[in-house]
Amino acid sequence: MQTIVVTGGTGLVGKKLVAELVQKNYHVIILTRSLDNIEKQKNVEYALWNVKNETIDIDAIQKADAIIHLAGAGVMDKKWDANYMLEIEESRTKSSALLIKTLQNNTHKVKVIVSSSAIGWYGEDKLSNHYFVETDKADDGFLGKVCSKWEQSIEAATALNIRVCKLRTGIVLSNAGGAYKEFKTSIKYGIAAILGNGKQMVSWIHIDDLCRQFIFAIENETMSGSYNAVAPNPVDNKALTLTIANTIRGKFYIPVYVPTFVLKLMLGKRSIEILKSATISSDKIKASGFTFLYPSILSAVAALEKK
Is 28 buried (19+), middle (13-18) or exposed (0-12) by CB count in 10 A? Predict the structure, then answer.
């Protein structure tokens, strides 16, 4: 039984991923800031770390065969003031640095690190029918710079002869929270809220496929570098919203456009990501041998609504 250390294991993706790892007979150690209110599970244990204080349970790292690094402050959780923007960056880069420092200074058997990244790496669509690919440079905006520093911070593990994969995650669709829950909020009341003009492309992924990609990257020794963790068929915001509305309510809803200025008033700088159109290619991860359970938005929404 291999041991996987998971950072961010109590978050939206982390909880689902830990369950999938256990189902596949991995032993999981979740790095956490507190042992209060932890959920006891078979083949799951918890170990303490504190990124700000630069402390970590070294024994946990020494037990690990692999590390999955998900830790990072939620991008949409709070207003983007100077303090929170710094927290978004440092929660990612400093947590990576603590892992690298621990591996450098202690004996270990870690063979691979799979780190989360994000499609915030990419900028705005400028050409029709153009897909961003992994070799495209990072955007000059806030999230592009954060993603660049994030990936660089974990890439340092390659100097320790550790294989490193970085999954640039798209908009995660899950019943447990995140974007999908927000899309459904107004639909429950018969309102399909289309954001802005609704034409901005959304590069999404079903949470089951995302968790399978993390495990696939652990198990596939030929994988290294950056991969776009998005479904093969991105859709515009209007199509996404109406697909969810049709699945949940049939014809019993009213499409309503939420004006751009309203979103900017409500979300401030965060509205940039809501309104940005980014069409991302999944060709590289498909070429590695990964197959999607939910390649289309219709299949993904249908599966979510069955659960």
Answer: buried
